[in-house]
Amino acid sequence: MQFHEIRFPAALSFGSMGGPERRTDIVTLSNGYEERNTPWAHSRRRYDAGVGLRAMDDVDEVLKFFEARRGQMFAFRWKDWSDFKSCKPSETVAHGDQTIGYGDGVTTEFQLTKTYRSGDESYTRNIAKPVSGTVLVSLAGDPQSEGVHFEVDLARGVLIFDRAPDEGRDITAGFEYDVPVRFDADRIHTSAASFQAGEVPSIPVVEVRL
């Protein structure tokens, strides 16, 4: 994976527009009923980085970032200000936010995940890019210490325990995270005149699968 472990300037992603998208194939039958199927098990997120720009210096910073990523070539981290915590945006990350697995006495690696629930339905999303220093972990409610009891692979979003959790012990975690994205175009169109007139460039970015 061609990925640079660097975050798009968070101050510029603030105010951007975007969110998850899904792909649904819909066939309308002759009797008027529908058949709906999806080839995607997971959603994909899209954003417009241009909306967060406020001044020409912001444009300059984005151009530097764009050139350093070689346009669409290298993916990078993106902070989605509406969805970047294991808890609600208004809450503080805590050890028990998300249940990510159960010990079996053998497995030492566990993927960070976030579960979205509504009614009786839920969707579990793998978190591949946790933010350094924000990951909290508990085993059966007992807080663990990073660097002593576990390590975090920040490139994969995987917890690595020094010893396999005992069978049946629930593993919970709280964390902040970024979205792995790339630019969705190999060019950026902007000018000082149009920007000063209140127009902002469209700079699309799209989530990548890891």
From TrEMBL:
* One Pfam match: DUF2460
For this protein's source organism, the top of the classification is: Bacteria, Pseudomonadati, Pseudomonadota, Alphaproteobacteria, Rhodobacterales
Protein name, entry field: DUF2460 domain-containing protein
User: What residue stretches are annotated with the DUF2460 domain?
Assistant: 4-209
Origin organism is Planktotalea frisia
Q: Which InterPro entries match?
A: DUF2460
